[in-house]
Write a structure and sequence with these properties.
heterotrimer; A mainly alpha (310); B alpha/beta (522); C mainly alpha (353); A: 310 residues; mainly alpha; two-stranded antiparallel ribbon; 74% helix; 1% strand; globular; B: six-stranded mixed sheet
């Protein structure tokens, strides 16, 4: 009933929409696995988006945009890490501060430089991979995508591998579960946590940059619209596993994509408001899964607990 | 003569108020089991924590293989071949056995060569005569298996001296036997084993040399051949003198607390109480003697309501409180003087006055009714009443504080205890659980507390006294029960039993017949 | 490991408790000045415009107080939740739900009932709905141990999506095609100073703040709540019902946030639209923390942020500096206050290990 072409487009958009979630989520998985909750992801994504937008606009070069976004992410992450790890400020409260700062600063900077109008940039274009993109239906869906998404395809499994099969990943997981034991065995808890938080915030910056440069093509206030917080919810949903979190982001992205396509359909059918109703469903799904997950999954045991060497 | 692999000389370690290690000399030789025997507070764990690098000694030196060493952290100790298996296992439950074992090691590559590690684990396990599944997650293992993982962890790090801290406290008898087999294989491989324990029969079985500590000092160094249970028990417990306490003989009244066949799990999921039954009467002090860790803490928690029992019943003033919450139990007349004063006993940021009515804040006249809101149990605090009451208690219990409004955490240790006593006893509960009431207090505060407990007894209150200070227990109590591994192994009147026998009961060497124990409560 | 940071608790002279936060604010305003000059505006004239915008004339001052109302109500509610150590990040969603409830009931009742009854019933409904929205999260935390932070944030977005749908559906104003809003509400909360927008809700908010102070520090409920937040083990030991404390503090916090939402609709805008909340719920968290979770101190804190928001609006019309400067400054104030708190509580030394 649904033309295959449309199905392909739906999946294509779903993957694109899920990518910022997956990237930010991956960063947060690493951060939380080391024991540090970073609620500021949303703010870092916004700053990343703005930075990418601005520097792409003035240089015309997308790579510069991505690069500066990652730098901004690292900077904000450093603030968060210093607050929560060294100064032992409550992680929830510190994270909210980064959120407020990122939100407000990105908005202010954009308005001051660009005013209130919408300015567009030459955004990323989809690049098909030869042969693979010719596979019916899934070809154009998966393999005619933005370059950053191809990076994501490789990054997520790599991140999984590093987490479970390397010495670094083992140290990370150990610090998140029982920093005291890890410390006894010579693992530097502070180094591990700092690196995890910095990685997480760099990813958040990158995610925000992609949202702007890859998906939307412009910047406006609150561009990320809660994606950062949803990413945190997805980390819980995925039980702190990168691939499960990725699956969750794909579900979310699919829901968004479907509702976007349905918007057209419903408007033509005379129910223009129905899509808004449907848009509530992804959030309800996240809430239900939070409840379901809480019964079984355990967070990294030292999550939100600062570490002190006796 | 062979040189010792570890030599500790003149070790002194002080904590506020106590000298945990008082000029201790210790030698450990390769291929031998050295047992470190002593009661709680004797200093055994402290001494070993110093050797393992968790603490730093205030005075003294450590020599490994003749060379002086300074340990800044366990990492240093591990590099020198010291390994330690703590009572709280230092394992990460969520990770697998092999991951726990190779954590922090560089030999297995950046991309972990787990297969290599697993091969070595299987080989070692086979050599030592046990099986372990290296891929299992640690939380799935039994206590005995976790212990073996810790031992493997140490061997992977080329351990030369392995310290086991009360290893059998979490094991079944079968697992204990298997542990001993492993220890024998370790010493056959020329590894030295230091075995900390308070259980005499085990020490007698496994040790080559025995060192007895008491109150921070070494009181005896024996070889296995020289040791007898009686001698060891006497060394451990010492020539305790009954304290200068005048205790008037009293005829105890009706039964206030009755506990029947209480069973409960510890935090580790192991059975900590294996069927405890006893009675406490009005005007009576029942003391629990025993080395800490034999279920006393869990017993106090179950009776008070901080822990749910698996089986059994508790009756307070005739009412079945087994399933009642703490709020109700307090109203029926229970109170607890907790061991963990700062963590549980007071709210540091609150004033002395506020702490003094902590449990009574809902009661008239401390809270006055507000129309309508009282239905939601929201009442106005009567601050004058609070002040008056706190002033009374401050005076009555001689709490030294600049004002009733001073923050509770600014009080000295002894005064914090007075505050807790004032609060608990001020509301005249019929039944009091006193957990280590004089621990960490100076002489005058200790005397005060003991006098107070006896006074309460005079007035007809019932007290369950848990204390690691044996002389205190024996002097204050009308009846004493000894707990060992979650059971009551003996109950008696203090005047009627010899000190040696008490020591033997505390270390699991002697057990009174059940009928004798039962009769005591009548 | 070469360097290590050592913390030792300390008690400072009480005067420091005023000086240090003041220092934090000054630092934040300094940064605001830097941002202004980067935006090619002279900071001095910026500050002048800012102050005149906030309190320059009776009308402007009244407007500041209007803005303060929401912050005050939500801030007081959050003081209870945060003191109980329940991190209610959901004030935003509870506010929206209250606004929705208030609008719906008002539209339903305003034809048949006198305005005053309509208003009162609407406000009560708003409090109930806001309270339930929050209480749900509190219940899940108390019984299942679910992380209330993630849950309340997601519920914020759910509330917003609900709002978006309702404004285009059941609550749509049939006459408005341009952008989504509800039909206008005739029942209004009265203005107390004619010629301004200052309404009765402000008085209500102040009364609630005073009531909140009383509840927090003069009742057994507040006593138990504070103990449970400071030392949950001691609370259990003293026989308190900690679950009840968690849930009730959330209900209280949510109902005040819901009330704030309904008041905004019924007193200021007189209709419901998507922009009814622009992050006020999140800002209220800052208001509560800067006010040290003390209902009376939250009054000046709310005032300050009300002034900040209003002053910055004027700044935009007068000097062209984007009003979003307030958001940037909010974040900076927050972070500087946080950091200053660390130095207030502890003596921090960096030592070589």
């Amino acid at each position: 009933m649904i033309p295959l072409e449309t199905l392909s487009s739906i999946i294509n958009l779903a993957i694109a929409m899920s990518t910022p979630l997956a990237l930010a989520g991956l960063g947060e998985v690493y951060s939380e696995r080391s024991g540090v909750l970073n609620l500021g992801v949303e703010g870092i994504m916004l700053m990343g988006a703005f930075t990418a937008f601005h520097f792409t606009y003035i240089t015309g070069n997308l790579i510069v945009g991505y690069f500066t976004a990652i730098l901004v992410g690292l900077f904000l992450g450093l603030i968060k890490a210093t607050l929560s790890i060294s100064l032992k400020v409550n992680q929830v409260i510190a994270g909210m501060g980064i959120y407020f700062l990122g939100f407000g600063l990105s908005d202010f900077l954009y308005r001051t430089i660009y005013g209130a109008e919408y300015v567009t940039i030459q955004k990323s274009i989809q690049v098909p991979i030869p042969i693979l993109s010719s596979i019916p239906v899934i070809g154009p869906a998966l393999f005619k995508q933005y370059p950053a998404i191809y990076l994501t395809y490789m990054l997520l499994p790599l991140a999984w591998f590093i987490l479970y099969r390397t010495r670094w990943g083992l140290a990370l997981r150990a610090v998140g579960e029982n920093p005291r034991v890890a410390d006894t065995l010579g693992v530097n808890v502070f180094h591990v946590r700092y690196l995890a938080v910095l990685f997480g915030s760099a990813m958040a910056g990158f995610a925000g940059a992609f949202l702007c440069l890859g998906v939307v093509g412009l910047f406006y206030e609150n561009l990320t619209f809660g994606m950062g917080f949803i990413a945190i919810g997805l980390v819980y949903f995925g039980k702190w596993d990168p691939l499960r979190m990725w699956a969750g982001s794909l579900i979310f992205g699919t829901a968004w994509s479907i509702s976007t396509f349905l918007q057209d359909y419903f408007t033509k059918a005379g129910y223009p408001t129905a899509t808004y109703f449907l848009l509530m469903i992804p959030y309800i799904v996240v809430i239900i899964s939070l409840i379901a997950v809480s019964r079984k999954a355990k967070a990294p045991a030292s999550l939100t607990i600062p570490y002190t060497r006796e | 003569m062979e040189k010792p692999i570890v030599s500790m000389r003149n070790i002194v370690k002080r904590f506020p108020g106590v000298v945990a290690n008082d000029h201790i000399d210790l030698d450990v030789f390769k291929g031998e089991v050295l047992a470190l025997l002593g009661e709680n507070g004797a200093g055994k764990t402290t001494l070993m924590n110093i050797l393992y690098g968790l603490y730093r000694a205030d005075e003294g030196e450590i020599y490994i293989d003749g060379k002086k060493v300074y340990f800044k952290s366990p990492k240093d100790a591990i590099t020198h071949g010291i390994g330690m298996v703590h009572q709280q296992f230092m394992l990460i439950d969520e990770l697998s056995v092999v991951e726990n074992i190779i954590l922090g090691l560089k030999e297995y590559g950046l991309v972990l060569d787990l297969k290599e590690a697993v091969k070595k684990i299987n080989k070692l396990a086979r050599e030592m005569g046990f099986k372990i599944d290296p891929w299992q997650k640690v939380w799935q293992l039994s206590a005995g298996e976790k212990q073996r993982v810790e031992i493997l962890k140490a061997i992977f790090r080329n351990v030369k001296v392995l310290i086991l801290d009360e290893p059998t406290s979490v094991l079944t008898p079968q697992e204990t036997r298997e542990l001993f087999k492993i220890i024998k294989k370790l010493i056959a491989n020329n590894i030295a084993v230091i075995f900390i324990s308070h259980k005499l029969h085990e020490v007698m079985e496994i040790a080559d040399k025995i060192v007895v500590l008491r109150k921070g000092k070494v009181v005896g160094k024996l070889s296995r051949e020289q040791a007898t249970p009686q001698l060891l028990a006497k060394l451990m417990v010492g020539r305790e003198v009954f304290l200068e306490i005048t205790k008037r003989p009293k005829k105890p009244g009706h039964v206030v607390l009755e506990v029947k066949n209480l069973k409960a799990l510890s935090d580790k999921g192991v059975l900590a109480l294996k069927g405890i039954s006893f009675k406490v009467r009005a005007g009576e002090i029942v003391g629990i003697a025993g080395v800490a860790g034999n279920g006393q803490k869990e017993l106090a928690e179950v009776i008070y309501g901080l822990r749910k029992p698996l089986e059994g019943k508790i009756y307070l003033f005739g009412k079945d409180i087994t399933h009642k919450d703490i709020y109700e139990r307090i109203r029926i007349g229970i109170s607890l003087i907790p061991e963990n004063r700062l963590g549980l006993g007071i709210v540091g940021e609150f004033s002395v006055a506020e702490n003094l009515i902590l449990e009574r804040i809902d009661e008239q006249p401390f809270s006055l009714n507000i129309p309508l809101l009282s239905r939601l149990n929201i009442k106005k605090i009567n601050e004058q009443m609070l002040l008056k009451y706190s002033r009374e208690l401050i005076e009555k219990f001689s709490i030294v504080t600049p004002s009733p409004f001073a923050k509770a955490r600014t009080l000295s240790g002894g005064n914090i205890q007075r505050l807790i006593l004032a609060r608990e006893l001020g509301r005249k509960p019929g039944f009091i659980i006193a957990e280590e009431p004089t621990a960490g207090l100076d002489v005058s505060a200790t005397e005060y507390v003991r006098k107070l407990l006896l006074e309460m007894r005079e007035q007809g209150y019932s007290i369950l006294l848990i204390s690691g200070d044996l002389s205190e227990v024996l002097s204050l109590s009308d009846k004493v029960m000894v707990m060992y591994e979650g059971e009551i192994v003996g109950a008696f009147r203090p005047e009627k039993v010899s000190l040696d026998d008490v020591g033997l009961m505390m270390t699991g060497m002697k057990r009174l017949p059940k009928e004798v124990i039962k009769k005591i409560w009548d | 490991m070469g360097l290590e940071i050592k913390f030792t608790e300390r008690e400072l002279h009480p005067i420091m408790y005023i000086i240090v936060p003041l220092g934090a604010f000054s630092l934040a305003f300094l940064c605001g000045g830097i941002l202004m000059s980067w935006a090619s505006v002279n900071p001095i004239s910026g500050y002048e415009a800012f102050i005149s915008g906030a309190i320059g004339s009776p009308v402007k001052f009244a407007d500041t107080l209007v803005r303060t109302t929401s912050f005050l109500l939500m801030g007081v509610g959050l003081a209870f939740a945060l003191r109980a150590r329940v991190f209610n990040i959901g004030a935003e969603g509870q506010y929206i739900m209250g606004a929705i409830a208030g609008t719906w009931v008002a539209l339903l009742l305003q034809e048949n009932l006198p305005a005053s009854i309509t208003i009162i019933v609407s406000l009560i409904m708003a409090m109930i709905i806001g309270g339930l929205w929050a209480g749900f999260a509190g219940y899940l935390k108390a019984t299942l141990g679910i992380n209330e932070v993630v849950l309340t944030v997601i519920m914020n977005w759910l509330a917003f999506k609900l709002l978006q749908w309702l404004l285009r559906g059941p609550l749509k104003n049939p006459l408005s095609e341009m952008w989504p809003m509800s039909p206008p509400i005739q029942a209004k909360i009265p203005v107390i100073i004619p010629g301004t927008r200052l309404h009765l809700g402000f008085i209500l908010a102040v009364l609630i703040a005073i009531g909140g102070y009383f509840l927090m520090f003069k009742t057994n409920y507040g006593f138990k709540l504070r103990v449970a937040g400071m030392n949950p083990d001691a609370a259990k030991y003293a026989g308190y019902d900690v679950r009840k404390i968690i849930i009730s503090s959330m209900i209280l916090s949510g109902s005040l946030a819901g009330l704030a939402g309904a008041i905004e609709v019924l007193a200021v805008y007189h209709f419901l639209y998507e922009g009814i909340s622009i992050g006020l719920g999140y800002t209220s968290i800052i208001v509560a923390l800067v006010g040290k979770l003390h209902p009376l101190a939250i009054i000046p804190s709310a005032l300050m942020f009300g002034a900040l928001y209003n002053g910055v609006v004027y700044l935009q019309s007068a000097l062209g500096v984007s009003y979003t400067l307030s958001k940037a400054m909010e974040g900076m104030i927050y972070l500087f206050v946080l950091i200053s708190e660390v130095f207030l509580k502890y003596k921090v030394r960096i030592i070589r290990r």
